[in-house]
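Dear U.,

For the methods section draft, I wanted the exact inputs and outputs in one place so we can describe them consistently. I've listed the two proteins in the order they'll appear in the manuscript figures. Please don't edit the token lines directly; just add comments below if something needs changing.

First protein:
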Amino acid sequence: MKTDTEAFAEVIRARFRKGEARLPLLPKAVLKVQKIVNDESKGASDIAKALAECSTFSATVLRIANSPEFKNGTYEIRSLPMAVQRLGGRKTLQLMVAISSKLHFNVKDKGLQKILNKNKNDAMYVAVAARHLAQILRGTDPEEAFLAGMLHDIGVQAVVCAVPDLLAPLAYEDQIKIIQTLHREMGGRLLNYWEMPDAFEIIATHHGIESDDRPRDKLIDFVDAANFLIQSHGHKVLFDPIGDIDPLQYAPIQRIGAGETHLAAVEIELEDAVKHMGKALG
């Protein structure tokens, strides 16, 4: 029997309104660092101490700080305080949120977990491509572009982790359609709940849509341009597929000022860069 996608999505929305479905919580280590970052009397050493209490985050932050994507200079960063100073306190926090979205949100149902894993991989490609575009074109901060790419589809995790019992019995095609319907609004809601900067919430809510109310922000254009680029490069995504369009006619690519040489440069380095970040995330 075919599922009425919009009606089913409304059932899920009703669960949230009634408090019967809850958004995923951030790990305690992230909440602790969030509190430190918001305290003006605290600094990098305090963040490093909090990071040291969690082996997963401390090891991953160190690997990322030393990865080819983030490393600044030839020297190796060997301590957490140095890593936090390199990345900055607020970006360290945002990076921890991105790490959480990729490593800590899982479900028991194998089919839904495959969807989560594929979506995490898609986000990694978008993040790396967005960072490379930002490096080449210098229209936005490359590290913010990377984090925005990592978090732009966080709504997929929000929906799947909140109502796995409703989604698991459905056919795969219906699961994808329902998540596609809800992932933008739930992504914006989740990042607001986590107190992430407005820019990331806006990207989660508006990415992939050209409309009159689309925010005119370069960061969302870099994410959408990156999403287009990985798909034209042959990477198939589960959500927000883009049709057959000339890259130079795609509005976000036009707005960031990317030409054929820029796109080709990112394509050449994309696979290796994704492998590097995959290793850094463990």
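Second protein (the one for the lower panel):
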Amino acid sequence: MVRQMYPEFHKIFSAIITPMYENEQVNYSALEEIVEVQIKDGVEGFYCCGSSGEGLLLTLEERKKILETILKQSRGRVPVISHIGTIRTSDVIELARHAKSVGADAVSMIPPYYYKFTMDEIIGYYETVMQNVPGIKVIVYNIPQFTGIEFSKNNADRLLGNPGVIGVKFTSQNLYSMERICDAYPEKLLMNGFDEQFLGALSMGASATIGTTVNLFSPLFLDLRRLYKEGKMKEALKKQKEINLRVEVMCRTNIFAAVKYGWTLRGIDCGNCRAPFKPLSDSDKEMLKDLYDLKTEKSNI
């Protein structure tokens, strides 16, 4: 069986948040700080302007500058993937051209949303971007709970067979479908997108993960992967449970705002999420303080 290619992406990626000031302007200075601290914490790569980064609430110019800021601060020490997906194909082409020109290692794209596009139209959207930006490395972003589109080996054969598509960010609980894609396309990169199922995803063929809680808790993910590779499944499951506790509590509120608040507690004020998201309540903050006060081996908050 052919093994997944692109070992440079077999990493623990932070789905990095976008710090903001109170007036909702992007705080690029704070972004530089959290990039540096996360690399020191052990984060092995960044995925910017995705769900955690409020990508669809940002302007195209903000998305470009965020990518440039992360690339400049990371200085080639870790790979950087830029999420460029949005509904209008011409905007995606513009972001793809920019990402390639400034040195992003790959781009990722959600399918076009809102309108009930046919699968032929959706695949055409990806193909048009790749045709207009030759040589761009594309990671398909499978996140059906947000887009209403679930990619599988049955409905996306034409897309997954395209050599410009190097892999899939799989943010779905359907691990059976993940395994079937891995079996059908063993050369493609499979990247887990749900922090709470990292261990299960590894067993189904994933070789990387891109996570919201990686922003704050990268040592837990690094330990889990190490234990899995060593065959220490009971210990790996314990680490997964530690991750899941954090996910469970943070999902009681806005998980993206919860991550920002965690960084604020660490001394880098990342503000709130952009409207229409609401700021965290005082009770939310108290709940999160209790969570972040947990004394866990190698926990970095």
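Candidate sentences for the figure legend, describing the second protein: The two ends are 41 Å apart (CA to CA). The mean pLDDT is 95.

Thanks,
Y.
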